[in-house]
Amino acid sequence: YGKESSLYFDSIQFFLHFQFNGWFVFGVIALLLRHSVVRKIHIDHSIGLRFYTILVLSCVLTFALPLTWNTPIKYIFWANSLGVILQLIAIYYLYKLVRSMRQSICTHIDNLTFLLWTVSLASLIIKVMLQGLVAVPSLAIVSYSYKDFIIGFIHLLNLGFVSTALLGIINDQFAVNPKYYKNGTILFLIGYIGSEIVLFSQGLLIWREWGMIHGYYIIIFLLSLFLPLGIGLITYSVMTAKEKTSSSF
Q: Which of 110, 133, 206, 218 has the highest CB neighbour count under 10 A?
């Protein structure tokens, strides 16, 4: 009963799953597509519709994975496996969509925005590819048994896919101080990529029972400092650009 019940746990997982893999993912994709329309970047709508439809189905089915945490029934594992396979198919259509837009994107955006969107797309693809491994029930158990893997997956989505996509839109659409924005972006990417490497490496070591990375927590702490420093510089670049814009009128 209460907090000890499976229903309570599943309710929290329902909220988190459809927030991270639902609202966040589809919201960012909508913003990117809308921004592409504004920038007159060509979009193949037929491929986009297939990508969207399959991704929606996969989002619903992959909710089965957290349900297996307290209800390890084979049919639920199979539902998750189907969802993971659909997710891989969706990524294939995303690749086709981006490839059809590549020339137009390169024409209309600068190098920094292109870098940020590339990191964003790569993060989503890596997340889906790693999640593809959990189609195997034994690996599905491993994926949620080690906190380093869980945190790494969350960072791939939130810091990797969501944040870098939004930073790219901000850089392309709003007035920024280029020097500070670029330096802030570099610091942010160092913190994100570095922490991901350490998190997944540590998770792998614990899984294989090979021990801890020497100074693991200190390394994670130091890498994490790059994130607020980067965001601070990015925020400052936007604030100073606004001041310059307003003073020019």
A: 206
